[in-house]
Amino acid sequence: MKLIGSLTSPYVRKVRIVLAEKKLDCVFELENVWVPETTIQLANPLGKVPCLMMEDGSAMIDSRVIAEYLDTLTPVCKLLPANGNSRERADIKCWEALADGVLDAGVLVRLERTLRAPEQQSAAWIERQMSKVHLGLAALSQRLGESAYCAGIHYTLADVAVGCALGWLSFRFPEIDWRGAHPNLAKLYDKLAERPSFKDTVPQ
Hints:
Glutaredoxin; 2 domains; four-stranded mixed beta sheet; 8 helices; 4 strands; globular; Glutathione-S-Trfase_C_sf; Glutathione_S-Trfase_N
């Protein structure tokens, strides 16, 4: 398998962490989708990363799809419960959707600020997206409570997703004091940051 992505994308980081936790071999190919010479459309017509190229030449897209697929390849470090426990599985996927939603809003703010001239930027649009970031963080914090991990006492894909969201916010939006506002999320992230899979994928 070959993973196409960047070193700064939190969605790519999620897949890289899953690959590491599952101890799966995969070639990592760097791709900058924002430069004119990018060839990402040859693999993913949507022009996004991550994109996982399979052994048969087919492509798998979207970090949520890829992560769920990778978890089926080996019993090592199961990140999602078996299909029989549909409620628990859906709960973990909701954690992932919420974490990714925070990222989606943050990415839109970053694109607005970096791709548009200052006079063309919409303050109302930025405020709307930042509201989603802050409300999403509050929801994640409330859901976590005093639990050791997102889904209780076990490390799951929910923790991977939340950890990637928090790490990216620290990287791209250091002015957001999510640690001060949500100390339980800070405690969770500090614990996750000690895992080799997180240490080896810090955005840079």
